[in-house]
Design a protein that fits this description.
Number of domains: 2
Largest sheet: 8 strands, mixed
CATH superfamily of the largest domain: HAD superfamily/HAD-like
Helix content: 25-40%
Strand order of the largest sheet: 5-4-3-2-1-12-13-14
Structural class: alpha/beta
Strand content: 15-25%
Order of helices and strands: EHEHEEEHEEHEEHHEEHEHEEH
Number of helices: 9
């Protein structure tokens, strides 16, 4: 069957190591769109953090953000959301209390408080990222649990892997473990890892399946491109899963296609090979 929907991750996939989208990738996406093929951006980024890159795509696209927690139509309307229940979020914060300097609670808010951290946060973790890029959305509070008055989008723990990896074991062995979904995004060359704590069933794959079903597009007609562990469920859903040449070790599965790296316009290469010539 011909490809009718292209789902692609941002960082390490469409966005290269220079934080750019190549002209070649944009041209290939435009060529696919001109053939009536739908393009869906599927990212772990918050909507605000994804917006500058989505804006570079020269036609309206559906966006799936926060690892599948939120789906917005090309018109910006919310079509689907799957947030972390407040009760589960409070349990999580108790269990990973030792990781508070690296912990962020993310809310669906337009301004300050969208990313909330505790006063003890340190620059080696997400605090350093937000001070550089999202100061207008950052809120520091004395007690993180007290700030959780509604369902957050997710909880995220970020920083050097050696400092945060223990949080996964604590949560998987806890009472709240069965009601949450845990996913990693790892960048070994930068000594950075992002550990996302989502509601159970909240994945890129689940959100993509929802949207494809809404559009009447079967999985067999979907091509998905990704490079990291948080892309796994999306790649498993797609009839044509394609991993980037720079993909994290352990992501690739037998039978999956591999395209060139993000720095070599791997998105364009995959579109040309499997969509425009396929």
């Amino acid at each position: 069957m011909p490809i009718r929907l292209i789902a692609l991750d941002l960082d390490g996939t469409l966005v290269n190591s220079r934080w750019e989208i190549s002209e070649k990738d944009l041209e290939a996406l435009a060529a696919a769109s001109e053939r009536g093929i739908q393009v869906v951006v599927v990212t772990g980024r918050r909507p605000r953090a994804a917006a500058p890159y989505v804006a570079k795509i020269p036609f309206p696209v559906t966006t799936i953000t926060s690892n599948g927690a939120l789906v917005r139509t090309p018109a910006g309307e919310v079509a689907y959301q799957n947030f972390l229940p407040r009760a589960a979020a409070l349990q999580v914060l108790d269990i990973v209390h030792a990781y508070r300097p690296y912990t962020v609670v993310i809310f669906d808010l337009p301004g300050r408080g969208q990313v909330t951290m505790e006063d003890c946060a340190i620059p080696e973790g997400p605090l350093g990222w937000y001070l550089r890029t999202s100061l207008d959305h950052l809120l520091l509070v004395p007690e993180l649990k007290a700030a959780v008055k509604s369902d957050p989008v997710q909880i995220m723990i970020g920083g050097p892997p050696a400092r945060i990896e223990g949080a996964e074991t604590l949560l998987r062995q806890s009472a709240v473990g069965p009601s949450i979904h845990l996913t990693w995004t790892k960048y070994p060359d930068r000594n950075i890892a992002i550990f996302d704590i989502m509601n159970q069933g909240c994945t890129k794959g689940r959100a993509l399946k929802f949207w494809a079903t809404q559009c009447g597009i079967p999985a067999s007609d979907v091509m998905a491109l990704g490079d990291n562990f948080n892309d796994l469920e999306m790649l498993e859903f797609a009839g044509l899963p394609v991993v980037m040449g720079n993909h994290i070790e352990g992501l690739h599965r037998p039978g999956w296609a591999v395209t060139s790296a993000c720095d070599d316009s791997g998105v364009a290469s995959a579109i040309e090979q499997y969509v425009l010539k396929g």
